[in-house]
Amino acid sequence: MDGTVLRRVNSGQRFGKLVAENMALVALLVILLVFQILTSGRMLTAQNLNSIFFQGFQLMLGCMAVTFLFALGGLDLTMGNTIGFAALLGARVAGISIWLCLLVCLLVSVSVSLLNGFLYTKAKLPLFIAGLSISFVLGGFLQPLSNNGTIAIPYRYVSWNNSAVKIVVLMVVFLIYGYLFVYTKIGRQMKAIGAGEEAAVQSGVNTGRMKRLAFVLSGIVSGVLAFMTLLRDLGADSDTGSMFEFNVMVALVLGGMPMSGGSKARFRFAIYGALTLSAITNGLTLWGANGNIQNIVKAGIFIMVLAIGAVFERGKDG
């Protein structure tokens, strides 16, 4: 009898842990049901669910890329302006070749990420200061590069903006980045840095190299995002990529990613968070909320989730 009771208790504990670790997925389902009611049944139609997935395509890519930085307790404040800067430079060579356009987007984005990593690990600038400074510099170039207008790419490239290409890109990033994060020492060492950098150093982790690698991984996907944005919009302007890093940050926090990184960082949280934020944005749009209201709601949710997390952590420490 005692053994039966113990098994039931253990099963209950495992179930509770499973629910707690996947709370963002539960929240996503609740959000879908709430907006299903508020929008009179328009939220859960096959067409709208398809829209949520593809609207969240770029956000999922961004979240997967920044997961490595979040795991070691960092963030990429330059991502939005990097995407805009790379897209504008890529657009200027798109008429020559679509592959040259992709190459330029990748080279520019990776170069910015290397600069980020250098300032953070070699120049020893605080991450927030380094990221903000580079973001401001890049932002200053956006209007001159765009000539205060839109730099268009040839219309023939519109055929590249299709579901098949997006699914292939998403799956390639998911498989490669997911494998690196979950099954290799790269992910383990980055989480170790987030859990405690001094302990990670004593364990033999090259923290500087891991931090620079995290920025490079983010930069590669930023280049892909710049290219995909060009295909979607058939051009770029000074607003391309604007506030993208904020949406990524909100999505990751919604997905359950701890801001401090560490052992609790999970790759799946990037997918949960991106889909959750996309569902919120889509639901608010169906409900009739304008862009300003949507930004207020997203900011409010971000603050609320951080506050709840802080209270929970204090409760555990107490």
CATH architecture: Orthogonal Bundle
Main sheet strand line-up: 1-2
The number of distinct β-strands equals 2
Low-confidence stretches: none
Kindly state the mean pLDDT as a whole number? 88
- The class by helix and strand makeup works out as mainly alpha
Number of helices: 14
- Briefly, what CATH class? Mainly Alpha
The radius of gyration is 21 Å
Number of domains: 1
Give the ordered list of helices and strands: HHHHHHHEHHHHEHHH
Amino- and carboxy-terminal Cα gap: 35 Å
State the major sheet. 2 strands, antiparallel
DSSP strand content: under 5%
From the spread of the alpha carbons, the general shape counts as: globular
Within the CATH hierarchy, at the fold level, what is the topology?
A: ABC transporter involved in vitamin B12 uptake, BtuC
Question: Residue share in helices?
Answer: over 70%
Oligomer: single chain
Short synopsis of the structure:
The protein has helices at 2-21, 23-38, 46-55, 57-71, 79-93, 98-121, 127-146, 163-183, 185-195, 197-202, 207-233, 244-254, 268-287, 291-317, and strands spanning 151-152, 235-236.
Can you characterise this structure?
The chain has a two-stranded antiparallel ribbon with strand order 1-2. It is built from 14 helices and two strands. The longest helix has 27 residues, at 207-233. The protein has 318 residues and is an all-alpha fold. It starts with a helix and ends with a helix. It has one domain (45-312): ABC transporter involved in vitamin B12 uptake, BtuC. 76% of the residues lie in helices and 1% in strands. The radius of gyration is 21 Å and the shape is globular.
